[in-house]
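Researcher: Here's the sequence for the chain we discussed earlier.
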Amino acid sequence: MTRVPIRLRVAAAFAVSMAVVLAGTGLFLYARLDSHLRAALDRELRVRAQDLASLVGDPRASLAPGGRLVESGESYAQLLDPSGRVLDATSPLGSIPLLAGDELRRATHGPLFADRTSVPGLDEPSRLLATPVRHGTAPAVLVVGATREDRKETLAHLRNELLIAGPIALALATLAGYLLAGLSLRPVERMRRRAAEISAETPGERLPVPATRDELERLGETLNEMLARLEDALRRERDFVADAGHELRTPLALLRTELELASRHGESAEELREAIGRSAAEVDRIAQLAEDLLLLARSERGRLPLHVERLEVSEVLARVADRFAWRAEDARRALRVCPPEGVAVSADRLRLEQALANLVDNALRHGNGEVTLSAVRVDGSVELHVTDEGDGMTGDFLERAFDRFTRGDGTRATGGAGLGLSIAKAIAEAHGGTAHAASREGAGLDAWLSLPV
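Model: Thanks. This is the structure I predict for it:
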């Protein structure tokens, strides 16, 4: 089913709201006018009753020639005695009493208003007022009334005008709402058209942001910030793929070369075994590189699995040092552990040892002199340090040392894909910590992981 455009939905909602407002306003005006006309008629009847009361006080006076006090066809008057007998009346009421029974008894004690659907000679609804008076010296009840036709006609005119003006006002308001919605949505349409033109092949493009200082401006700014993040993520993914392809190309080429040489020139079993050994080493390198890339990809998506347990820092440092003892011995380098006392962290043992192993491998591969593993508590966190006595890193390289595929001069000759420090950083951040490195002047490089206690 085709969805209704938001512009029409806004206009429809505006029309419904205006219809409710106009209907409510019309009903309110109609009720208020009805109330005012009823009150005006009651006041008119009171004034007329007061004027006629002085007239009927004279027994010789008559209601028939009422003049301006009683208008023929619109108003009437009648004088009754307490028993209901008609003493005097305007034509054409004649001798038919307008009050009887309970109404007559109540009128002898005070003013009484009543409505009649019709009275003799007048086939129109009317309203009357009965009030006690004196006819000479005897008590009597004076009844004055007037038709409600004028009030009815006035209300009918108002109703007709509302029924004509209301739809016109509603149509104009709906049109105004439609145009206003169109003007309000025009910046959105501009952003939509620009968004349709933006692709991966057009980096740097942004949505036009209207300077309206409202929700639309904030929406545009938020979308542009999102585009910047997506562009940065896409750039990093492209760099990641390009670097990964470049790193995989070298061991694959070496592996292919070794296999081709073995197939063409392998004349003895010893040569074949050497070729197979070198090929196996390259396969191990490819497998390790693939494993490292997978770990980094998981960490960037926040899905690096961790089996957290309480670990004694001294035990972790000792295990890592044991793994590299043979390499340090072959390189004639000292590997020393300065175990802290009573320091523990909550971490994944395998991942934490992997991160520290990468720091030690980096120190053995690129540093010189003694390599030291130590730990210290600093402001609610534990810092696990790996230091060497080499030349350290330059300031520019130090700032990007933990980026993927970052390698210093001469690194390619010593092997490695430039992922060791970035993996250590990813593991530290997965534990809620951070990774750092600093060159100690004249004393080599200090790389460390900072983990919450």
